[in-house]
Amino acid sequence: MNNRSIKIIEEAISKGKWTWLEFDNNSNSIYLEFINLRLSSNPILNKYSYKGELAIRFGQNIYFSIFYNDCDDLKFLNLDNDLFNKIFLSDELLTDFYSYFYKEFSLDVVDFKFNDFDFLNKIKNDFSKTNILINNCKRDYSINSNNSNSTIDSAVSCSDSAVSCCDSANSSSDSTSSSIGSFSDFLLCFRCENIAIVVGGNFVNCFNDFETLNDDDIKRLSNNWYLYFLNYWNKKGTDEELEFDLLCEEFPLK
Predict the structure, then answer these.
(1) How far is 46 from 58, CA to CA, in rounded Å?
(2) Does residue 209 come out as left (phi exceeding 0), alpha (psi in the -120 to 50 range) or beta?
(3) d(CA 189, CA 122)
(4) CA 101 to chain centre
(5) How far apart are CA 168 and CA 180, in angstroms?
(6) Which letter does DSSP use for residue 152 in this model?
(7) Boundaries of domain holding 190
(8) Can you tell me the distance from the alpha carbon of 74 to that of 80, in angstroms, rounded to the nearest whole number?
(9) Is 224 inside any structural domain?
(10) 105 lies in some domain
(11) Helices 215-234 and 3-13 meet at what angle, rounded to 10?
């Protein structure tokens, strides 16, 4: 993906919903699905004629971690108590118990960023607990989880020179700084209500209606929605006013 496509996807998903998590350890891949996005594969007539869906697949040397403050915020995973305790009260991985896993749910996305280490740093500072669920990266990691000082202490790398996240304590007694190492592949960070997710992989693909999207496709999906958005607001307050669309209303045309 080029930078334009990345920005389009970031903006489209930042007010959407995360609805699906799937990983396949045999194919070394993670799938995430989102809906209620400012994207459409076809021209839009009204709010009923588009779904605003997008699937994102990370592949090779995949990595997935979750940041949170309270265990109650993890109920969306719907894990049984025994498995939950093994994963979130220890250093065991979800892949230690499943080679294939999927869950469907609905969480509002608050913010969504690719390859943004400042955003990753903010996530690490905002949440007190961290657990790695999937780690097929080539380098070892070390993480202090389930306590208020939880940080990623050594390399979390998605290739020989990929994502590495290293914390270093500031000499000041009332502040902590984080230094971020080299990055060459794909890193995704996003926040959903009371949790945050970090995903890594050597490559990333986007899908809509089971078709792989290239940069031109992503631009077209965005254009379709924005043409509808302009039409929605141009007809607002007229005899041709379209049915109320909450997604359009969140971005009033000035």
Answers:
(1) 32
(2) left
(3) 10
(4) 17
(5) 9
(6) B
(7) 3-138+185-208
(8) 12
(9) no
(10) yes
(11) 40
CA distance 5 to 2: 5
Q: By the 8 A CB rule, do 111 and 190 touch?
A: yes
Asked if residue 100 is part of any domain, the answer here is yes
Residue 22's DSSP bridge partners are 31, 102
Residue 141: φ, ψ to 5°:
-125, 160
- Cα–Cα distance measured from residue 236 to residue 101, given in angstroms and rounded to the nearest whole number: 45
Expressed in percent and rounded to 5, the helix, strand and coil fractions of the chain are 25, 30, 40
Which DSSP symbol is given to 115? S
Q: Tokens for 64?
A: 């997935």
d(Cα 243, Cα 56) in Å, to the nearest integer? Answer: 30
3-state DSSP call for residue 1?
coil
The 10s digit of each residue's pLDDT in 50-106 is 878 999 999 988 999 999 999 999 999 999 999 999 999 887 899 999 999 999 999
C-alpha to C-alpha distance for 220 and 227, rounded to whole angstroms = 10
Question: Contact, 191 vs 109, CB < 8 A?
Answer: yes
Count of structural domains, the chain: 1
Q: Which amino acid is at 107?
A: L
Q: Is the model more confident about 215 or about 91?
A: 215
